[in-house]
Write a structure and sequence with these properties.
This protein has about 140 residues and is of the alpha/beta class. Helices cover about 30% and strands about 15% of the residues. It has a single domain, classed as 3-Layer(aba) Sandwich (Rossmann fold), CATH 3.40.50.720.
Length: about 140
């Protein structure tokens, strides 16, 4: 398992330095054929890596990657560190996570928030109910519908 936690940020912090239709994580996957590449730990700052709980709320950590068998280990690592892990789909979604990271950087550096904030995912319904991708209602099979 190889976790890419980098962001291809331009030196002046004006945006991402990666072409359209790709991501740093996808480039890493190309450089490491056969590796189970995941994108995670790139959407928050170092302060939150050390302590991901803010005011009693776990900050979210999105994880994307293509290997279904290995993904639970990466999600588990995020949980073990103290984050609220969320499966963000296939590795191609690293493009979205790198943009999300750019938003965090912008708010921290240019938006005046500094490094002491994080994002949280707030869910409706009973704790632990998993929503299908794109859905906002639990299914009848999860006991909440």
């Amino acid at each position: 398992v190889l976790i890419d936690c980098t962001n291809p940020v331009k030196p002046d912090l004006s945006g991402l330095d990666v072409g359209p239709g790709t991501s740093a994580a996808e480039r890493v996957a190309g450089w490491a054929p056969g590796a189970k590449v995941f994108k995670a730990f790139n959407t928050t700052g170092a302060n939150n890596m050390a302590d991901p709980v803010i005011n009693g709320v776990r900050t979210v950590m999105f994880v994307c990657g293509d290997d279904r068998a290995a993904k639970p280990a990466v999600l588990g690592l995020a949980a073990d560190v103290g984050f609220d892990p969320v499966d963000a789909g296939p590795l191609a979604n690293a493009r979205l996570l790198e943009g999300w990271a750019m938003l965090w950087i912008h708010l921290a550096v240019r938006g005046g928030l500094g490094p002491d904030f994080g994002f949280a995912l707030i869910r409706r319904g009973p704790t632990g109910v998993t929503r299908p991708p794109g859905g906002n209602r639990p299914s009848a099979s999860d006991g909440a519908g």
